Recover the amino acids of this structure.
């Protein structure tokens, strides 16, 4: 979902119109998907869809979560590489020895 798409005036007016006609959250989500191909399945609160300020706040929270996940991934990758470096070097050394043996034959 693009938070910026939801913040456009046309879509905000469309959402306000649906809410004024007492559409439920699920009905609004369906209409957004059908009309604008916006996937808002993770939205759990109708107020979030009707408030650009809440949308911006949610976008910042989601970006922060993504940044944290990315940071944790990088930390785990570095840790894993460090832990397995010796095994990889030993495996490479064995491979070189086998290749040398085969080439000497």
């Amino acid at each position: 979902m693009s938070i910026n798409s939801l913040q456009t005036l046309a879509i905000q007016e469309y959402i306000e119109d649906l809410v004024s006609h007492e559409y439920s959250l699920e009905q609004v989500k369906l209409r957004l998907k059908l009309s604008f191909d916006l996937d808002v399945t993770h939205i759990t609160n109708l107020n979030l869809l009707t408030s650009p300020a809440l949308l911006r706040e949610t976008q910042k929270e989601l970006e922060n979560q993504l940044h944290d996940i990315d940071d944790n991934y990088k930390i785990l990758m570095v840790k894993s590489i460090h832990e397995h470096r010796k095994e990889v070097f030993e495996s490479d050394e064995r491979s070189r020895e086998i290749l040398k043996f085969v080439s000497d034959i």
